[in-house]
Write a structure and sequence with these properties.
By secondary structure, the protein is α/β, with parallel strands linked by helices. The chain has a single domain, classed as Aldolase class I (TIM Barrel, Alpha-Beta Barrel), CATH 3.20.20. Helices cover 42% and strands 13% of the residues. The strands form 2 sheets. The protein has an 8-stranded parallel barrel, surrounded by 6 helices.
């Protein structure tokens, strides 16, 4: 990290985590002072867990160079991302070659789609010690609020988070509501997404990853309150703002998923504008980066970062 990137905004964000040990604060500072967005308080992270989560063909066939784990390290570096996140195998395949060039986040649990599951449950596939060994700044863990075994995930995450924090690692939580009790539309409903962000914050996440919410309201009890209190939801920026408010009134870093491949780059840039205008902290962009040819990916990521820096309207 550089002195010029250690801005008042970075210092302000670090005060939100004052109860953490110096190792956590140092690694959080590394995230915030790396890449093109260094010092801004914004993040763009490249996550590549889709090979495990969706299968190699669905993930990498649209851009065959992406079958090579090293491709993603270099893409994150060339784009000026704040970090690169992946499961154990992909990180082990390039961590030594790219040591020190990009902050790494080890995804500690993963889930496959070889069976059709109404209530998904990931498996722990790596350890905190693996993250330390690979020189990572943090660990990642996915929870599925709403799934039948969510309590097991919450308990598992609580233990992993405590171990990671003791080792000085940042805890990044993917919070994706799913399960038989939720409608498909409800998985990205505003009330459910805000709830998922709150759960991740309560479980000790330093960085929270959620999907962009829609204006739909899933839970009848929540809908009554949202309507009675006139919680704004008409625009994407309104909805982002409410999710940020639900994450300790903006005192936790919340970044938003880039979702499945969208060939309309302008639509993705509009989403980045809504995240910026709603007070979001940035994006975690996987398939919309590595499934594009590299030059197109670099252009897209560069434009997103320019929006977050206020260089592009």
């Amino acid at each position: 990290m550089t002195a010029t990137a250690f801005t008042p905004r970075v210092n302000e964000i670090l005060t939100w985590y004052a109860g953490q040990n110096p190792g956590v604060l140092t690694n959080l500072a590394r995230l915030l002072t790396t890449g093109r967005l260094a010092g801004t308080g914004k993040l763009v992270i490249l996550p590549v867990d889709q090979g495990f989560e969706h299968g190699p063909g669905r993930s990498f066939a649209p851009n065959p160079p992406a079958y090579d784990p090293r491709y993603h390290f270099q893409l994150a570096i060339d784009a000026g991302c704040n970090a690169y996140a992946a499961p154990l195998g992909f990180l082990e395949a390039g961590a030594a070659e790219f040591a020190g060039q990009i902050p790494l986040i080890l995804k500690l649990n993963n889930h496959d789609v070889l069976q059709d599951e109404a209530d998904p449950l990931g498996a722990v596939t790596a350890t905190v010690q693996d993250a330390v060994r690979l020189g990572c700044v943090g660990i990642g863990y996915t929870i599925y609020p709403g799934t039948a075994d969510r309590r097991l995930q919450y308990q598992e995450l609580a233990g992993i988070a405590a171990e990671a924090k003791a080792a000085g690692l940042v805890v990044v939580v993917w919070s994706y509501p799913r399960g038989g009790g939720l409608s498909k539309e409800g998985e990205t409903a505003l009330d459910v997404t805000a709830y998922a962000a709150q759960i991740a914050a309560q479980l000790g996440a330093h960085v929270i990853k959620v999907k962009l919410p829609t204006a739909f309201l899933e839970q009848a009890a929540a809908k009554k309150v949202y309507e009675a209190q006139s919680i704004p939801s008409a625009t994407q920026a309104d909805r982002v703002r409410h999710v940020i408010q639900s994450s300790f009134d903006g005192r936790r870093i919340v970044i938003f998923s880039g979702g499945a491949l969208n060939t309309d780059s302008n639509a993705l840039l509009d989403e980045a504008r809504a995240i910026r205008d709603g007070g979001g902290f940035g994006s975690i962009v996987g398939r919309n980066a590595f499934q594009r040819p590299k030059e197109q990916a670099l252009e897209l990521l560069g434009n997103m970062m320019a929006i977050y820096k206020g260089e592009l309207e």
